[in-house]
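Q: Given only this backbone (137 positions), what sequence would you predict?
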């Protein structure tokens, strides 16, 4: 049986990939329509729509968090200690997806607060897991 930790790790990776695919599909359409030269894109999508800039940042946020949170999940999976991470694995994934969706939707002050709150949840879970994994060895 697959653990919630393994499912959450796979979900985190899949969500990151989905954001990348979405960005590249939109970029491809811009190139095919002749609106942007194929070599004119920047990592932050500067010069493109505000949505595309938020999409680039949401994807970058996932890439920044994946080694940390995914690494903790991987340690738990590899050491057969998913009992330590399973209970909050879906909360971590949900807060990651929520953070990205809010990022894509808006840059209002309320949205920034919501995004930070979702990230704070992830940080809290990560610190908690690190403590558990280090002290249960």
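A: Predicted residues:
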């Amino acid at each position: 049986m697959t653990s919630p930790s393994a499912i959450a790790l796979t979900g985190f990776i899949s969500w990151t990939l989905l954001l990348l695919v979405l960005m590249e599909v939109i970029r491809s359409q811009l190139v095919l329509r002749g609106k942007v030269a194929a070599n004119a894109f920047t990592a932050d999508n500067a010069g493109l729509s505000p949505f595309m800039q938020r999409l680039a940042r949401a994807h970058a946020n996932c890439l920044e968090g994946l080694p940390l949170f995914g690494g903790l999940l991987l340690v738990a999976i590899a050491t057969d200690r998913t009992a330590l991470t399973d209970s909050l694995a879906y909360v971590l994934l949900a807060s990651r997806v929520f953070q990205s969706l809010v990022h894509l939707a808006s840059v209002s002050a309320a949205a920034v607060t919501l995004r930070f709150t979702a990230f704070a949840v992830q940080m809290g879970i990560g610190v908690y897991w690190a403590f558990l994994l280090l002290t249960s060895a």
